[in-house]
Amino acid sequence: MFIDRNAYLARIGFEDSAKDFAPTLDNLVALHTGHAFSIPFDNFDVHLNGDVSLDKGHIFDKLVYQGRGGYCYEMNGLFYDALENLGYDVAYLTSRPMLGYREKRPRTHMLLRVKIGEQSYICDQGFTGMSIIEPILLKDGEVSQQYGFAFKVLEVEEGLFQLQTQQSGEWVSLYEFDLQEQLYIDFSIANYFNSTSPESICTRKVIVSRYSEQGRAHMLDNVLRLRGKGKDKDIEISSRGQLSEILQDYFAIMLSNDDLDRVYQKIGG
Question: Which CATH number fits domain 5-266: 3.40.640.10, 3.30.2140.20, 3.20.20.150, 3.90.1150.10?
Fold first, then answer.
């Protein structure tokens, strides 16, 4: 998939020259962090359009040129294309969301596996606001501290892994995955489920999230949750103007007046 690599690198604030780019671990960390800090997770298109396009050209235009965000297939699909274009050995994986569920869920979440030499790393830009900030080494039990948040991968049985994060001193599982590589087209059914089914959190909730060096801003319907570095705070959104300011200040998102009206109505305005 051809992408305008310079436009993508500029979008995520990556200053190194693409001409002399080397697919190293240091560069992978910088790319992953830059993407996480620059491009927000949002599921607006689920609520505004009733479906989400997986056309790669559309996604690149939306997330890079238009300055918007997207959800997992868009975020990780774009990141896959950027990594492949920059010379990385990258593959699509699929996972079973676990956070907030007691029963087994279908495999609907996209994540990425990147190989550098003999090591494999998990990359993820789109888990409903709880994604990792940096790549995680695929090594059982090794804790990764990332800007005040802790993550680790556990091998729960041979070839089956869980990504976990620490909340209030307890480890909770975000999702479960194996290393069976997927094709991009394999996510078309999962995308249909997440963008149309009443069982999907994406159809039931408006979700926007972005990381920064100060922590994580996460909007769930009409509540903005700020987390990280001992400055936890919840802000209730009670007006259209406040919603507009929050989207711009915390997520660098500017919606049209019509779309802003519709989002505000969706969150209970």
Answer: 3.30.2140.20
